[in-house]
User: Fold these one by one.
Assistant:
Number 1:
Amino acid sequence: MAPKSFSFPGIFPALLASSLALLLLSTPIIAVHDYHDALRKSILFFEGQRSGKLPPDQRVKWRRDSALRDGSTAGVDLTGGYYDAGDNIKFGFPMAFTTTLLAWSIIDFGRNMGPELKNAVKAVKWSTDYLLKATAKPGVVYVQVGDAYSDHSCWERPEDMDTLRTVYKIDNAHPGSDVAGETAAALAAASIVFRSRDPAYSRLLLNRAVRVFNFADMHRGAYSSSLHAAVCPFYCDVNGYQDELLWAAAWLHKASRKRAYREYIIKNEVVLRAGDTINEFGWDNKHAGINVLISKEVLMGRADYFESFKQNADGFICSILPGISHPQVQYSPESMWFSGGLIFKAGGSNMQHVTSLSFLLLAYSNYLSHANKAVPCGERSASPALLKQLAKRQVNYILGDNPLGMSYMVGYGSRFPQRIHHRGSSLPSVAAHPARIGCKAGSRYYLSPNPNPNLLLGAVVGGPNVSDAFPDSRPYFQESEPTTYINAPLVGLLAFFSAHP
C-alpha cells in the first residue's frame, strides 16, 4: 500500500504539521475487511485437514480419502479426526484443544456465524466422533496415530501415506492426565454445542467426558513421561498436567452444573496452580483460559467463591496490554504508514498465541460488558471496548493490516502465503497426478520455489517474526506452517467481528 500524499496551500503551520505527524503515527491505515469471507474460509480450512473417509458434502475437492486403516494394528478403529498441521500425524493433544476452542467459539459466538454455523458444528463433530473412538475403551485413551519421525522424513500426500501408523495410548500404568484432561474438556465443551441440536449425542459426549476426566484425575502423570519418544519434541507437555485437570473440571462444571466439579475446582485451585503463568494460553498451557472461563460466573453474579479466578483473569488482561505488558509478551513495532503491533511470544508458530490470547480478550470483554465492569491495571483501566479493539487489531493484522500488506490467511485478500509448509497443498492433487508420489519423490516439490498447486483456503500460517518479517518458504516451517489450533479460536473472533465490524 503506497503512502498517501498530503498538500496544503501556503506555509505549513507548525502546530498543524506536528498534529498531523502525531495523527499518522497513532492512526494506522486500516483496510475494510470482509470478516464473513474470512470466517467462511477459516472454517473451510478444517475440511482440508480431515483424515479418514471423506463425506459426500466435502467441499475441499483436491483432498481424497486417507489413513483408512488407522488403528488396525491395535485392533481398534481410529479412522477420522484431523491432521494437526502440515504433516500426516494425528496428535490427540492439539486435536482435543482445537475441539475445545471450536466448541467455545460456537458457545460464545455461534449466534454471529449466520449460515456458517452449521459448518462450524460439523467441524466440531468431525473431531468428537474421532475422540469418542479414541476413548471407547475404559481406562485407555488413544492419543496418537503415526510415527512422527517416520512421517517427518517424507514429503508425501496423506492419500499416498506409507509411513508407520503406529498407535500410541495412555492407560492406568502409563498415565497422561494432560492429554486425557484436554480430551475430557473437549468432549464436555462439545456436549454444550449439541445439547439442543442432538440431545442423545450431547449426553454421550458428556458421559464420556466424565469417564475420561475420572481416569485423568485418578491416574495422574504427564503423557510426555509415559510416551516421551513418541510425543517429544513435537507436542511435549513442558507445562505439566495440572492445568488440564482444572480446565477439564471447569468445562465439566459448565456442561453439567454439578456441585462436585465446583468443589473440585475450589479444593484444587492452589494444588493445581491456577494462578501460575496467567498470561499463557494454548495447547500446552490452559491457565489464562481457565481463569477467563470461570470468571464469567463471577461477573454474572452467580459465583463469589470463584473470585480469585477473576483476579487472575484481571491479571492476565493487565499482563498483555500494550505499554504495560509482561516481559514474556512483546508487540511488533509500528511504523508511520502501516499497523504493526502484533502480539509476539517466543517459540514456534507465533499465530497460535495471537489467536488464542485474542480470543480470551474478546470473550472476557463480552463478560465484562454484561456485568458493566472494567479491569483495573494500576493507574489505568481496561474497558471492554479497549479489549475488543486490541483483539480486532490482531485479527486485522492477520488479514492484511501489517507492514508487508499481506494476509496471513491463505486465499483471503490479493496477497497471501503461496508456499505454505503443508504436504497436501504443496504436492499435486490425486486428480492432477493419480500415480503415487513416494516418500522421497515429494522432496522436489518441498524444495521448489513454485507456489503450492492446491490452495488450502482459510489456513493461517505461523506468521512473521517480531520484526514483521516473513519468509514465504516451505522450509521455514515455524513461519509457514498452518495448524488447526491457530484457526479454532480465530473462528470465534471472526464470527464476532463479522456481526460487529
Number 2:
Amino acid sequence: MTEPSGGNTDKPRRPVVVPAVALVTFTAVGITALLGGLNEAPEQPDPLSEGAVLDQGLYSTKFVGSRVKIEPAQNEWDEEKRFVELVFNVTNNSDETLLVGLPPEKVEQAYTSTFFAGSLVKIDPAFPGEDAGPFAYALSKGGETRQLHPGVPTEVILRYKLQKGQQPPAKISLDVASYEFASQFNNNVEAWRMISKEVGQKHLPEIKARVTMSVKKGDSA
C-alpha cells in the first residue's frame, strides 16, 4: 500500500533561519515608521561656537563671544552693575539702513522682524528681572547707535543685567534664524523676510544654527 501524497505529518519541521541583518533592518524600519516615517525626522540646526561666521542672508554675522561687563558705582549712592554681554560683528547685506532691534519675546513673534537681533529667536538661559533687559546697540565712531548701514561691518552688543547676587551662566546658547529675498506672504512684492514655516495658526522661524558661547568673567567697563 502506498503512503498518502501528504507524507508523514509527524515528521519534525526544519526551523526557518532569518539573517540577523534582516531582523535589524526590519526593527529599524518599524521604529522609524512609529516615529513618523523615513523622511519626517526634524533637521537639527548647525552647531556653532564663538568665532563662527554665519550667512543669514540679510546679515553676515560673526559670533565674537560673550563676557561679563562690570560698571562701577558712580557715587556713594550708586551700586555696581554687572551685565552679561553677547558680542557680534554684523554686516548688513541689503541696500537699506536697518535697525539692530531686540530679540523677540516669543518665538512665534519673530517671523515679521527684519532686525538683526530679531533673528536671535531663542536665548538660553533666560535672564529674570524687570530691569534685566535685553538691551541692544551697535558701536560706531560717534558712540552708540541703533543703525546698521549697508555693507559696513559693525560691532553689536546685546546685554542683560544680572540681579544682585546672581551668578552669570557658564555658557549661553542662541537659536538663530536667517532671511531670504522672496515674495511676501500677502503679495507678490519681493523683499527680505525671515525663513519660517506655518505650523497651525503660527509662523515659526526655521533655526539656521544653534550657537553656544562660553561666558568670560571679570571685564570692567
